[in-house]
Specification:
Length: 322
């Protein structure tokens, strides 16, 4: 009788038949620390250069990356941060997806505090926000006796979580503390503004104007329709760069397919678009068709990739044709 373990082995074997360790396509952002991000990120050289030019300035800059849903804004943001971590080791880079119910100042405070795990005040802010910390924070109190012999008692209790009433002030304090360890500054990347209601985003942006002009680099992803027009103009000056991401062209998508497959290949690790082996288990014709129907949209590309490879594994084929 076939057991569940047998079925797992069969499933794994079906993928390995395609010369792959795993299905490499993913809709979730790749971990910043992962080497996979460097291998699979493809294209966007012009857009990357525009962003990196901002980081050659002495002044702190504010960057808005926007585009249609599924166009690759999160991957682009993480690629920028990954490069900065390698090239600017004395710069603190933070990333956070905008949580439900939090304003931008509290979100930024949370992002910075999570990266300062050896700073007591950063951990205190996390604890106040109800975020688990590596150490249990205690609150001390003293009681003095009034007898002939003066006595004192010291007691400790777990610190009660309290929402910060002044997140912008708390953020500025943390940025000052971070400056000692990171003299090149702090980058706060807040992703997914376009997942919130546009009217809510507009209000958040108005409330956060002072914070965004503070002592940190800010990178945000979203869409201009969620931000009041005058906040995007040069007169108000909230953003130094508004960068639109468009669909990838087909040669770039083809190269991206090669990079994805190469990151999971068991043996053949080639990356030359002219070498037919580099798109295996796809034939070159099937790879070209796959790239055409993905329309240059990274999210659609990943969904199709998952579907096609899963179907190929289930069918126990060795080669994917058009």
């Amino acid at each position: 009788m076939t057991t569940a373990d047998d079925l797992f082995d069969q499933s794994q074997g079906n993928i390995q038949r395609l010369d792959l360790r795993e299905i490499p396509f993913t809709e979730s952002p790749i971990d910043l620390e992962s080497e996979t991000l460097q291998r699979i990120f493809t294209g966007r050289q012009g857009e990357l250069l525009q962003v990196f030019n901002q980081f050659q300035s002495r002044e702190r800059r504010r960057i808005l990356v926007y585009g249609r849903i599924g166009i690759g804004k999160s991957a682009f943001l993480l690629e920028v941060l990954s490069v900065l971590r390698r090239k600017r080791p004395k710069m603190l880079t933070t990333y956070i997806s905008l949580p439900a119910g939090l304003d931008l100042a509290t979100t930024a405070l949370l992002a910075v505090a999570k990266e300062m795990d050896d700073d007591y005040w950063a951990q205190r802010y996390l604890y106040q926000l109800g975020i688990p910390t590596s150490k249990i924070l205690k609150e001390r109190s003293s009681k003095v006796g009034g007898n002939a012999l003066i006595t004192a008692e010291t007691s400790e209790k777990d610190m009660e979580p309290v929402t910060s009433q002044y997140p912008t002030v708390s953020l500025n304090i943390l940025l000052e503390r971070a400056q000692d360890k990171y003299p090149d500054g702090v980058v706060i990347a807040i992703d997914d503004l376009d997942k919130r209601n546009p009217s809510e985003v507009r209000q958040m942006m108005h409330d956060a104007q002072g914070m965004l002009k503070g002592d940190a680099w800010f990178m945000l992803t979203g869409h201009p329709m969620g931000i009041t027009g005058d906040l995007l103009t040069s007169e108000r000056g909230l953003f130094d760069l508004q960068l639109k991401l468009d669909e990838l062209d087909q040669p770039t998508t083809y190269k991206m397919l090669i990079n994805y497959l190469s990151s999971a290949r068991l043996d053949n690790d080639c990356t030359d678009p002219q070498d037919p082996r580099c798109v295996l288990p796809f034939t070159p014709e099937a790879a070209a068709e796959f790239c055409r129907v993905s329309l240059g949209k990274p999210r659609l590309f990943n969904r199709l990739g998952n579907t096609v490879l899963s179907k190929a594994a289930d069918s126990e084929v060795d080669l994917i044709t058009p």
